[in-house]
Structure formats: C-alpha cells, structure tokens
Amino acid sequence: MHKFKISRGKTGQFTAKFVYNSETLVWSETYKSRASANNCIASTKKNAPAAAVVDLEKGEKGKGYRFEIVKSKDGQSFVRFVAANGQTMLRSESYTSKSSAMNCIESVKKNGPKAPIEAEA
Predict the structure, then answer these.
(1) Is the pLDDT at 112 greater than 90, yes or no?
(2) What is the pLDDT of residue 31?
(3) What is the mean pLDDT of residues 20-27?
(4) In what order do the strands lie in the sheet with 77-82?
(5) In angstroms, rounded to a whole number, what is the distance separating the alpha carbons of residues 80 and 11?
(6) Is residue 72 within 8 Å of residue 57, measured between CB atoms?
C-alpha cells in the first residue's frame, strides 16, 4: 500500500516520506514543524501528476514542478522532485538502472495523489 508518512527524527524535526509497503521511495529534507512536512506532501499530491520528467544525465533542462533524474557520484541514478522555485522537495535512493528511477517517478505520479498520510510519533 502506498502512503505518505511524517516521521520525527532524533533532533525533533520532521521528514515526509512516500512509501510502498515498508520501502521508502522518496523523502524530504527535514522541517522544523509538522505543518511544513504536511505542506510538502500537499504540494506533491497536487503537482506531481502533471510534472515533467527531466533527464539531467542527458543534459535536459526543465522549469516548473518537475522530476529530475540525476547521476550520483558512483554512476547510479536517483530522482529529485523539484518545486517551481527550484527547491528540491523529495529525493530517492540511488538506483543501478535508470528504469528503476523511472518506476519510482511513475509511482509517485500515479499513487501519490490518493495516498493517505500517516503520522508517526
């Protein structure tokens, strides 16, 4: 089951995550308030379905809300969901294949808008 989770870290700050069963697909930066993590999720639910996919590995450029496929230092690929102002909202783990990165994007686009939000402690 797909869902968003808001968790509180050891420092008391909050992180928004999009998970499938027990696997975290993407996560946010840390926020000082739960409300900011909720805003990240609300914006993702609203803007991810129509967001462009930009492959930075191919030199593509994008603007507005978008998913970016980025090459990591070890040659793998990871995904960033970027807001219209250029700020990274969510990031994925690194994948050995670009098709796995694309699957992550499609999951967020398709399943994110209707995913429930679960708050951890």
Answers:
(1) yes
(2) 95
(3) 94
(4) 52-55, 66-71, 77-82, 88-92, 23-31, 14-20, 2-8, 117-119
(5) 24
(6) no
pLDDT digits (tens, 9 = 90+) for 53-69: 999 989 999 999 999 99
Q: Which residues contact 17 (CB under 8 A, 6 or more apart)?
A: 4, 5, 6, 7, 24, 26, 27, 28
Tell me the pairing of strands 66-71 and 117-119.
Answer: unpaired
How far from the centroid of its chain's Cα atoms is residue 24's Cα? 10
Instruction: Give 50's DSSP letter.
Output: T
Instruction: Show the CA angle centred on residue 27, arms to residues 22 and 32, nearest 5°.
Output: 120
Structure tokens at 32: 């000082």
Side-chain half-sphere CA neighbours of 14 within 13 A: 19
pLDDT digits (tens, 9 = 90+) for 76-89: 999 999 999 999 99
